[in-house]
Structure formats: structure tokens, C-alpha cells
Amino acid sequence: MTGDPSYVELGVDDVAKATHFYSQLFGWEPQHMSDGASVHTGSLGIGIHGKDSENHFEVFFAVDDLEASLETVRDLGGGVIGDIVTSDGFGRWSECVDDQGVRFGLRELSR
């Protein structure tokens, strides 16, 4: 459904430290990959990637029409900070900022 959180990305310096911390805190069982890890909670998938210059949690929100939603972001005074990307198994997505500079992602699940 449009506007529902659909994915969370965790950017960190050290994937191993992050997976240990959050596993101990929440009981997450990460699946380790060559470039990071992923966690599937009861409600969201979380991707953990390392060597990120900006440690952050970024929420991706589901939208029905990515291009129209990006235009609305711009109309409301926000910005689009990345190209539209298509990722196998993830869908089409782009990163944005709101009118105060807060980063978030928009994700079109199917087209």
C-alpha cells in the first residue's frame, strides 16, 4: 500500500559490529552476504551495508508510481538525491530528502 514502510537500510562502518549489536538487542538472525547482511523481521526487510560514510537508518516507503511520487517530492520542496534504480528482487527505487533535508527512499514494488 502506498506510504507504508517497505524496507529499511542500515548504513554502517562495520557490518560485523552492527549485526552483533542488533542481534543482541533485538534477537535478529542476519543472513550474511559478501557486501553486507540482511535481516527479515516480521514486518520489514532490513539491509545492512558497510563502509558507509554516513551511518544511518533509511526508511523506504512503498509507492504505486515512482515518477509521479518523485515529482510530488519536488513540488513539496523536497529533493531527489539519486537516479531511479532497478534492483532484482527489490523493485524500482530512488532516494530523496524532505523539505528539511531528512533522507528517505521511495520504492515501487511492481509495475
From TrEMBL:
User: Can you say what this protein is called?
Assistant: VOC family protein
By its UniProt entry, which PROSITE patterns does this protein fall under?
VOC (PS51819)
Residues annotated as domain VOC: 4-109
Coiled-coil regions listed in the entry = none
Gene3D superfamilies for the chain: 2,3-Dihydroxybiphenyl 1,2-Dioxygenase, domain 1
